[in-house]
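Hey everyone, long-time lurker, first post.

I ran two proteins through the pipeline my lab uses and got sequence/structure pairs for each. Pasting them in order. The first:
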Amino acid sequence: MSKLDSKIPAGHISQKWSEHKAHLNLVAPNNRDRIEIIVVGTGLAGGSAAASLAELGYKVKAFCYQDSPRRAHSIAAQGGINAAKNYKGDNDSVYRLFYDTIKGGDYRAREANVHRLAEESANIIDQCVAQGVPFARDYGGYLDNRSFGGVQVSRTFYAKGQTGQQLLLGAYSAMNRQIGLGRIEMFNRHEMLELVIVDGKARGIIARNLVTGEIERHSAHAVVIASGGYGNVYFLSTNAMGSNVTASWKIHKKGAYFANPCYVQIHPTCIPVHGTNQSKLTLMSESLRNSGRIWVPKKKEDAVAIREGKLKAKDIPEEERDYYLERRYPAFGNLVPRDVASRAAKERCDAGFGIESNDTNEGVFLDFSTEIKKKGKEVAFAQGNHNPSDAEIEKLGKKWVEDKYGNLFQMYQKITDENPYETPMKIYPAVHYTMGGVWVDYNLMSTIPGCFVLGEANFSDHGANRLGASALMQGLADGYFVIPYTIADYLAADIRTGHISENSPEFDAAEKEVKDQINFFINNKGTRSVDSFHKALGHIMWNKVGMARNAEGLKEAIQEIAELREEFYKDVFVPGTNDELNPELEKAIRVADFLELGQLMAKDALMRNESCGGHFREEYQTEEGEALRDDENFTFVAAWEYKGTDINQEEMHKEELKYEFIELKARSYK
């Protein structure tokens, strides 16, 4: 096993980033337009990186498979973005955000990266306010905050339930300015299908024009991958249906190590599955756990009656409700981290207390009645009515909730045809975010020189479980405040290199690989649709590499996916041609990558004989059903090196995690 060089700077944790920046090489302003950079992905990480690099004067080529950068999946983020500004005066700090993130990730994240993220968090808010992002404000006009899971302070800035959209529009406007100046060349409806390496360095990509089918060559001095996570390996997830792992997986197959693939976040607050023909799942923001209380009936017969439609939630008296998170975790209650809340919901439903009338009886209540009464009384009192009637309390309370969460309640009602002001929401955990990803060093460079990876596409900041409202924080920190400095250190040696030629044997070979794969799918005479294989993969992944795993199931998953891969290449059918808009061809290429990744995820989970964060092995749990880490044997990042299409050839390399500034201890939210 090789030793990975993470390039973590020496010194005290609070000084590492500032000292590191002070000694990085620079590219002078007059030399930057000699340098070309490719950015793949235009969500918060890619969009902010493209805008920042172009603002500095570099020539940027930005690629997205959507019809516009403003449709990147970052737009779907609802609840907020964390920052250690201590606006509420509840003793928040950079160190506390750092500590909460390490603890939330179950002590499996890299200390130096997490502290840098916490340091830059406050700058992100200032940057976005300057861009005009309409964060929520309190009565006095100051930026408002709310709490998210795994913390005991209010540090989450938000814009109703559409924070991701507003932040993305800020980054998009910054990009548009640079597009207008000619510094960003935008390639919408293009998908990266191969990385080109010349003399050991990333020097370009092969992309497919998704409208015409044309295969294009694009060269650059460096390539930045910011293409998001791989949650859609499960088919059903909260991700947009187009979200995929292809860019990350292609660079993995060219030499970029893939780290901790088994770390997958299951979000506890999603609308339950309703049928076999469903194509994706819908997230209900974690911010709702600020005001909603999660419960199931205490009696199984009541749960059965609710599932059968004989009882409604309001028929269950208060004393017969099990607010199980408040019962099990009194210190944090409904705001425990996502992995803890998700497993607790699964435990209740597996025990027969689920309330949703689907095939699996999977569902719990998220109830706002307590908050409606509480806030109704407060508002009435503030208005001078010190003895309001129940009707007045309910009316004022519902208005308060509507002002706070209105668009989320509206979305829930449109999807379920149930009014969440009158009856509790029904929720259940679903795949949401992936903490694993391409291994990067402190400079965000992969094991391929010149290939940088940002945001959810890398592994670096969240350990085994991401705290809510930290995804937007990481994406913007990487794009606005990290990559502009670290990529310059790498590019300083390229100011005399000149334009990278696209007429080289390396580009020829990469283009041939892409065309060969496309021709195979177009000419394969199969009978099954791409989606049928993707659904079959998702079924294996959810049941055996999902919320709970065990050795037997993981071994079965590896074998079953191998058989599914073999069947896929024999019997997949892709209609149409390669020289047109062909969504089925796009999906076939992506599912081919998911099939390989799924096996690696199972292999990684099988290797890690412990439970931590989102990786829960049934064999390794405490008497109370909590995750049981093995710090002596597994305090490391597992970085996998591609050696061939046989999963057994993947070679694991370890990056030992050293905790110098935080004590390793059992995670407790009780």
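...and the second, right after it:
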Amino acid sequence: MKKYLVTIMLLAVTFILVACGPSYAGLDTATEGEITIMLWSGDGQFYENIGKQTIADEDLTSQNAATIYAVAKAFNEVYPNVKVNVITKIGGPNDNGVSWSQFRENFELEYGKKVDIWASTDLVGEVTRGMVADLSVFSNDPMYQSFNPGIMSMMNYYGVQAGLPQFLQPWGVFINKELAENNNIDIPEPNWTIEEYTDFVSHSSPNSWYGSMDTPKSFIFTGTTTMAQMLVEQQGDAPFLNMNSNEVRSLIPLIQEWADHSVWPQWDKSAATEVDNNSPMRPFMDANGWWSFNFFKNGALLTLDGDPWMLGDAANTTPGHWGAVQSNDWDIYPRPSTDYVDNTVGVVLDPLAVRNYALDDSNKELSEEEYAKLQIAYTFASFWIGDDRAWQARADQQFKDGETMKVAINDSVPTVTGDAFNRQMEIWFSAPNHSILADKDRFPGFHFMMEKFANGNVKDVSDKAYPWFYDKDGVRTEILYEWNNFNLPSVLTGNPEATSPRRTDAGFTDAVLAKLPEWNTLANQRFSAEVALLQQGLKTHYGKTDADF
């Protein structure tokens, strides 16, 4: 798999463009055409030719509708004859009882239009079915070449560039320094180790505040060389990962140690010992809405390793904003280092896919007419993601979120490299919900995390862009289901009725260690089977042969 997934490369260094073949003939500014975009987290409306409309800020009630409105207007200043449409779904891609694929089908039946660009939740599956275009035909485009090659490689399958990064964010650890200071807890530096993290979160005041929300297996996943790193670098017939390695086994005992001052393990322990789950923790859980970010922003956690996408709400300085962190001193650190891996960060990646116009005539070869359509869609998508004008347009555009006006630019960081990265980060910092993060003295951890991210200290995979699921009795299930759920006694023991061992029980660590060899075998078998399906799809729809693998 190394042929299509490689380590994330330098993000903030200068990317030298090397001439490789003919120069790219960009889209003619007089080109006429039409594209339709589909996104979630919207308002449910279909906006036709949105770039030529005049819509008041207060009439835009979702960030994604406002985003396309702003970008389409900027795009139409350059390409005035391209009609840009957008349909957005309320909530998440599979919310409200309608799957993302069904939402797409319903739209196309109702409006008689094909979706040309969409946010993908399963890029591998869509490649396997031949749904998405191979964007590598634009590899000579200077904009294409400006995109971080490592990020692009996360969506590249044996040479088929199946997507662009619609949303990209480093995944670190929220830390509440004020809560630590108020309780005389030593605060580690941003370049903390796993031992320093363990010491830091080994404090709590039951039903008031805790060291962490959960026991972060992600620190083991990216903190060893035999899990995320092996998935990234896998090639040929080599194993995909080794969750039974000495590295992983050496870190497993930390799970039980972290559990002593972590909300979810303590809730499990408390609820299991009370009749009808009438746990003394329940008022504490109810007060914080049972959502990890609420616990952190309310000052009930020293650290939070999840919900990285809440960054903009956490940093929002609007008086009374519901998501603003209620602390005068908080930060975001990279993940702690281990004996095997330096401080690193995870990656949040939502791919953007473009329709495979080559199959419009049931012939996988791209005709001139199909290329012309594809070029329009690619040009808009790359403009949206990588052009300074699109970034500035989103930063200038407002929309109404409930009773509050917000800017359309989201928390996604730039995908471009070199000077363009720095310019777009300046635009990113100009947003009211990002501005305080520009202060390096106030947020040294955030800047250290971004430095790690920019310098390529990242070896992670995206569940939306990697072969992450397999069919289990007709249900799409995570390949690493057992690993991701070993906190559940039923999963750990294989007995659906089991109630122990839990993470706070004495036998937990030994039980996990005993299961690792079996889970490792199952995971590698599943990864291998899913990649075989992907390869067959590439041969069927994209002209690949066994020699390409």
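Reply from user beta_strand_b:
Welcome! Quick read of the second one: The CA atoms of residues 206 and 281 lie 8 Å apart. Confidence is low (pLDDT under 50) at residues 2-20.
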